[in-house]
Amino acid sequence: MTIAADGRIRVRWTLLAFIVVVVGMGFLIGFVIRPDDWYRSLAKPSFNPPDWIFGPVWAVVYLLIAIAGWRTWMRESKSAALSLWVAQLAVNYSWTPVFFGLHATGYALSVILVLLCLILAFIVNHLREDPTSALLFLPYACWVVFASVLNAAIYWLNS
């Protein structure tokens, strides 16, 4: 095995690690903190999608987040850009426990709006240096805009 081949193997394992950790944590949180009777009893807007939609959408979104994070790690492993990526992921992971665990729709709305700001900051930060990572975050931004509107509607309908 040559050094170049060894480097490619390391790059692939790093990508796989990002995917496993990001997607795995997302699904673990979703598995541990599930919608319950409280959630089912909430008034929801007419545009609320069926529950089965969320898993596949988040699977794709988490995959894109992982790839963008991996690309950022490979380019700048000790940077503000990577800190921004980690921050958005931490805020992302905190929304489910706040909304479904604490039943705090108003606080969850605050969390998701902070998340949206972090996603947009990541996109802007990457536009010049790594436009591919910025593009990978666009579906994420769109989904979080939709989720923010949904969260706001649930909050409003149940306040």
From TrEMBL:
<feature type="transmembrane region" description="Helical">
    <location>
        <begin position="53"/>
        <end position="70"/>
    </location>
</feature>
<keyword id="KW-0812">Transmembrane</keyword>
<dbReference type="InterPro" id="IPR004307">
    <property type="entry name" value="TspO_MBR"/>
</dbReference>
<feature type="transmembrane region" description="Helical">
    <location>
        <begin position="106"/>
        <end position="124"/>
    </location>
</feature>
<comment type="similarity">
    <text>Belongs to the TspO/BZRP family.</text>
</comment>
<keyword id="KW-0472">Membrane</keyword>
<dbReference type="Pfam" id="PF03073">
    <property type="entry name" value="TspO_MBR"/>
</dbReference>
<protein>
    <submittedName>
        <fullName>Tryptophan-rich sensory protein</fullName>
    </submittedName>
</protein>
<dbReference type="InterPro" id="IPR038330">
    <property type="entry name" value="TspO/MBR-related_sf"/>
</dbReference>
<feature type="transmembrane region" description="Helical">
    <location>
        <begin position="136"/>
        <end position="157"/>
    </location>
</feature>
<feature type="transmembrane region" description="Helical">
    <location>
        <begin position="82"/>
        <end position="100"/>
    </location>
</feature>
<feature type="transmembrane region" description="Helical">
    <location>
        <begin position="12"/>
        <end position="33"/>
    </location>
</feature>
<keyword id="KW-1133">Transmembrane helix</keyword>
